[in-house]
Amino acid sequence: MYAILDTCVLVSALRSSDGASHRVLRAVLAGQIRLALSVALAVEYEEVCLRPGLVPSLAPTQIIKVVDGLCRLSQHQKIFYTWRPFLTDPDDDLVLELALAAGAPFIITQNTKDFRGSETLGIRIITPSQALTMI
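Above: the chain's sequence. Below: its structure in token form.
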């Protein structure tokens, strides 16, 4: 499966080793899910995950190592064309733009309602549980 990982899934995966989000992260590490990543999304991963108290079980250096690992495992994609504003949240727009630029058919997120309309552009919005079922 080739997809984009929304920041909320990464945060959930780092906060708890139980649940579908953590299993999705493990599937990425195992090569079952291939990710595309842009500079903007990598910066968002780091910025959000490093917010005080958001991922209390990990030190900032550990969080940076996780993001660096995702950068190494992901296909790096430059964004040459923006679709903004398409969604209601500009941070979600950067995820959608990455999916379009990379040709990734899926965005894995817990906030499916935030991506309403993405299907008109050929991007399927799926939950971590749905991603695990598909692989």
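The longest strand covers residues 2-5.
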